[in-house]
Protein: D-amino-acid dehydrogenase
Organism: Arboricoccus pini
Amino acid sequence: MGRIAVVGAGIVGCSCALFLQRDGHDVVLVDPREPGAGTSKGNAGIISCSAITPLATIETLRGVPAMLRDPMGALSIRWRHLPELLPWLVRFCIASRSRTVESSTVALAALLQHANQAHDIVIQQAGLGDLVRGGGWLKVAYDRKRLDRYMASIRRYYDRFGVVYHMLDREGCLDLEPALNPEIAAGVLIADCRAVRHPQDYTGGIARAVMERGAEHVRQTVRDIERADGVVKTVITDAGKLAVDGVVLAAGAFSGALARMSGAPVPLIAERGYHLMLPHPAVTLNNPVYTVEGSFVVAPMTHGLRLTGGVELASNAAPPDYARIRRLIEPARRLVPGLTATVDDAWQGHRPSLPDSLPVVDRAPALRNFWYAFGHQHIGLTLGPLTGRLVADLVAGRQPLVDLAPFRARRAFC
């Protein structure tokens, strides 16, 4: 193939670069920021192979009014941006139909069963073993009935697709995480999840590995492409033109414009997420902990505890609003008594989301040398390495590890 430009240097783009380079391609990462400095920086660090159910379900829709009324709820909407968001929201509602939930779950489960194996390849290739820890992901509740309701909608899928989980009583939760509040009534340990202790360093480590093997990093924004006879010839950046033999679009929530240019006007928006870093928490956790009542995660990092939670729907260009994530400090201190709430870093990022919760992994409909790798919603870290492997298969003309029909760019988005 020759020289391939990967647009976007997050976990998905850097993973694409690694697997393409393994196939012998010259790779150019094109991103104005350092690798991993965007949305890949701020997640909870969970390799979540249990995330097999889509976001759009009847249960989610039923919970929306309560979430919007609650100032600490899991969802907020900037109402002045509603006209811009409305077409996506309508599709999201339609995607909650049972048959769409079923097909999306089957598709996600097919991807996620291979996610850990792809991470193992990346960890070995880039020497990142020190950043990843096993042990699972603990979800807890103060009310056992609340946990039972939470599990009711997903337990059948866990059982059907072989997700390994263990229901725990109070003592079981405290045995795993002694720092938790003893008022916790019950929990569930998702056993096959792993934790990345510094997500930005994880992505940066992948980028460093490919650059040590000859890849370039062009710190520019891609504005356009030049094509001839169904083939991209040139990528146009702020600094000028870059001759290429192929392009992979992995720019996350900012992929929409180039997707349209290449023949795929997908309904992509950003679910805006926030985190706070607590660098001197005075207590420790062994693994990430999610609270069902609060819908937030407290995750151990190499540099403290990270508090993440909630989805904000707004324009990509809207300024951050950190008030909501700061309101979670007190619930976090209830969950982890003794937590010192000194905040070192408040962060906001953009989760690239499509109404059916499935990413786009495909070749452009009108261009033979342009491929898509975006739209991974809340599981970009989890699926980044696998997406890199799948894109390399597409570029090489190999049979992909997974049937990619559900992830094509021109599917019916409800």
About this structure: The radius of gyration is 21 Å. DSSP finds 13 helices and 22 strands in the chain. The chain has a mean pLDDT of 96.
